[in-house]
Amino acid sequence: MSEHLRTALRLAADGLPVLPLRQGKLPFGNCPACAHNACGGRPNMKTPGPCACPQPCHGWAAATTDPHVLTSPGWAPAWRHAATVAYHPGGAGVTVVDLDDPAAIAWAREILPATRTVTTTRGEHWIYQGTMPSSNAVRPGVDIKSLMQYARWLGPGNGATVALPDTVRALAVKEPSPARRAPQTLTVPLRGGQGECPHRTPAFLERGVAMAVQRISEASSAVHATVYRTFLAVLSRHGRCGCLTDAHVNRLFTAAQAKGETARHCTDAWTNARTALGM
């Protein structure tokens, strides 16, 4: 029995759905009919391929906690050639925020609540309790892996796992197309202190707004999407307690307009972000 299979069986016994990965962090076709992709499936994609297998066997769908499946003859070639073990975060009830570089890690430490952290080859995985749709490149160096996705097993990590925050959920939300244009006025979020204030000091809010302005200002592509996602992140973190003022919002709008966005789009994006968060 290979070391990777032993690891997989141990994780499966703890309730973690696992699968083998080949070189290049790609999954196998985990049955004889799918060996070497003979069935026409796409084992590197997020969905099972068009094969005649009675059960899904490609990508994240191959992940299982069943030791009989993991040790079955059909999986033996995969384990013999496996380069590492992966797991399905969504199947385990968690979300992985994959941070690929020091800048992404610095952003997470400033914006996201501390949680269990696993060191990766290039950065860190931040693991939260709860699931959501997976999404790649939600911001520079940041991917979200949860439902219909797999992540490498790199050890248990450090720290306690906390609940998935709205800040992370907001990153994967695409801006809706409004049925009608919102008026070109600045609408400040929930001024009445209707939520618990998360700000330890005024400097905490100031840093959050400054980082949001910097993110918009440094966008080199997809400015429209970057503005909307930044508005979502700011509102999800700072918008419910009443601390966000007209001055803060104007700074965000000014940064967006300096990148070529119109005042109308800024207003629409702000309104849509509030709607997405139920504010």
Give your account of this protein's structure:
- This protein has 279 residues and is α+β, with helices and mostly antiparallel strands.
- Strands 4, 5, 6, 7, 8 and 10 form a six-stranded mixed beta sheet that branches. It has a four-stranded antiparallel beta sheet with strand order 2-1-3-9.
- Strand 7 and strand 8 form a beta hairpin.
- About 5% of the residues have low confidence.
Shape designation: elongated
The succession of helices and strands, N to C, reads HEEHHEEHEEEEEEHHHHH
How many helices?
9
Q: State the helical fraction.
A: 25-40%
Q: What distance separates the N and C termini?
A: 54 Å
| Biggest beta-sheet profile | 6 strands, mixed
Mean pLDDT: 83
Structural class: alpha+beta
Low-confidence stretches: 179-193
- What would you report as the Rg, rounded to the nearest angstrom? 22 Å
The overall strand count is 10
* Beta-strand content bin: 5-15%
Could you give a short description of this structure?
With 279 residues, the chain is α+β, with helices and mostly antiparallel strands.
What keyword list fits this structure?
six-stranded mixed β-sheet; elongated; 10 strands; 279 residues; alpha+beta; four-stranded antiparallel β-sheet; 34% helix; 14% strand; 9 helices
